[in-house]
Amino acid sequence: MSLKSVVFAAAAAAAFATSAFAGDAMIMVHDQYARVSSPTAKAGAAFMEIMNKGEADDQLIDVRSDVAAKVQLHTHKEGDDGVMKMMHVEEGFAVPAGATHMLKRGGDHIMFMGLNQSLNHGDVVKVTLVFEKAGEVEIEVPVDLERKAEGHGHGDHSGHSN
Ligand SMILES: [Cu+2]
After folding, report:
1. How many other CB atoms are there within 10 angstroms of residue 100's CB atom?
2. CB neighbours of 149 closer than 8 A, spacing ≥ 6?
3. How far is the CA of 145 from the centre of ligand 1 (A)?
4. Please, are residues 113 and 69 in contact by the beta-carbon 8 Å criterion?
5. Are 148 and 41 in contact (CB under 8 A)?
6. DSSP 8-state symbol, 40
7. Distance from the CA of 52 to the center of ligand 1, in angstroms?
8. Whole-number mean pLDDT of the chain?
9. Does pLDDT of 51 surpass 50?
10. If you compute the radius of gyration of the chain from its CA atoms, what whole number of angstroms results?
């Protein structure tokens, strides 16, 4: 890694907390990161903590990014056959007032399908979160391929089949 990219990574890391104010809503996004299972993967995912510091309940209803052909709010659910599957969550995720909603491996997440570029460790992906009340919140999500999954390491994204 060149000195220039080290400096950029450090400067970027400091900026990865985002807040948005709109009316009574106040959304803060914290600890966001994206990952792919390999540099040639066609799909990837992003994870983060979404905090609602406002007085009103809010809902993450959509997500957009130029990084992939399709970007969706996803969750993991156990199917009738007992196998964990990923699915699109049309209604999105509730973020009640004063609460934090975690997007994490093995749970709710942002899914990138049909990536337009390879994602390498240290790259930064621009993502727009769309909230019912707070509106659009633009965040920068660093690609972190070294992060270990919380818990038992289930729910890595290598098995995606959409
Ligand atoms: Cu997914």
Report:
1. 13
2. 104, 105, 106, 155, 156
3. 17
4. yes
5. no
6. T
7. 23
8. 84
9. yes
10. 16
What the block records as the tokens of 128 is 């727009």
- Please give the distance, rounded to the nearest whole angstrom, from the Cα atom of residue 18 to the centre of ligand 1: 23
CA of 4 to the centre of ligand 1 (A): 34
Which residue, 76, 57, 75, is CA-closest to 133?
A: 57
Distance 26 CA to ligand 1 centre (A): 26
- Give Cα separations from 149 to 59, 106, 107, 143, 152 (angstroms): 25, 9, 11, 14, 7
What's the whole-model pTM score?
0.79
Please tell me the distance between residue 143's alpha carbon and the centre of ligand 1 in angstroms: 16
Tokens of 17: 């907390």
Q: Which two tokens stand for residue 86?
A: 């990923």
Q: How far is the CA of 33 from the centre of ligand 1 (A)?
A: 15
pLDDT tens readout for residues 79-137: 889 998 999 999 999 999 999 999 999 999 999 999 999 999 999 999 999 999 999 99
Determine the distance separating the centroid of ligand 1 and the alpha carbon of 110, expressed in angstroms: 7
